[in-house]
Amino acid sequence: MAFRGLVAALLLLLPGVFAANIDVAMTTAVLEGGQVRISSEYQTQSERVEDIYIQLPRDVTKVASTIDGAQRSCSITKSIAFCGKLDNGKHLFKIEYTTADSLGRLSGRDVFRFNEYLPFRTRNHTFTLQLPVGTIIPQEEGKEPDFFLTPKPTDVLSDGQHIIITWNTENTNAVSISAVLEQLTKPDFTVIAIIVSIGAALGAAVATYFVKRRFWTKEKVAKKERKAKQKQQESKKLVPQFIEHEQMVVDLLTKAANNELWQKQILADTKFSKAKLSRIIRNLEQRGVVTKTIFGNTNKISLKK
């Protein structure tokens, strides 16, 4: 423990002394099967040769790492990985490993905790947490939507299956993230099958009844119902379970003429940053909700019909 604490302290203090720094640091944590897959990449810049030390969770015994695409061997001693020397100049260092040490339980809920000590100080750090299918952020009355996320996240988005949480930090050499999570109750497929069967039988009986009693339905009533149904469908959400900020973009496009807007118009109406809006549009485009057409130095965003 004393050795691990000493190295952790050095990781925090030495970046201010060394001539190396990280221009952009990105770490992604993907929760899957009771474990967390951690992938980090650091765009480094150094004026001289530096040692690369990475602090790891306690249960990690092996890592995969590369520098500029070439495999790099790392030796691990008391949760500290030494990955050799970093030559002067610009380089891309990547490291990946799997851990269960970052997961726990609290009051019947899952908890994710992760402390990342960077090898050098970074100008810009992005940490992304991807939740498993069926895992959500708990909501409690009287508490903010991000109450269970620490620190306050930069973005909470979705790719249609997973909730994706992002934290952006500037000018740092250490990041601490925690998230309290909740799994949706798994459905009882036997009960569902019974309900579906009963529903189908009732549906067939109702359909037969209305066929025999067609004289109850007049043309004017049918026409009025069709118009009401069409109007309801137009105002209805186009896809289920949009994250709040995604829904804002979809609502703007739904109300716009021909269901399309310039990206600059959406930017002005939502007050989002350019980077945040680009991520939202990219997620919606990947899920087939919108299309993006490039016109010179701007884009036209259209709602798929």
Summarize this structure briefly:
It contains six helices and 17 strands. It starts with a helix and ends with a strand.
Give a verbal description of the structure.
This protein is an alpha+beta fold. The chain folds into three domains: about 1-185, Immunoglobulin-like, CATH 2.60.40; about 185-215; about 245-305, Winged helix-like DNA-binding domain superfamily/Winged helix DNA-binding domain (Arc Repressor Mutant, subunit A), CATH 1.10.10. The protein is about 30% helix and about 40% strand. The protein is built from six helices and 17 strands. The strands form three sheets. Strands 1, 2, 4, 5, 8, 9, 10, 11, 12, 13 and 14 form an eleven-stranded mixed beta sheet that branches. The chain has a three-stranded antiparallel beta sheet with strand order 3-7-6, covered by helices on one side. Strand 9 (about 105) and strand 10 form a beta hairpin. The longest helix is centred in the middle third of the chain and has 24 residues, at about 190-210. The radius of gyration is 26 Å and the shape is globular. Residues about 5-20, about 185-200 and about 230-240 have low confidence and may be disordered.
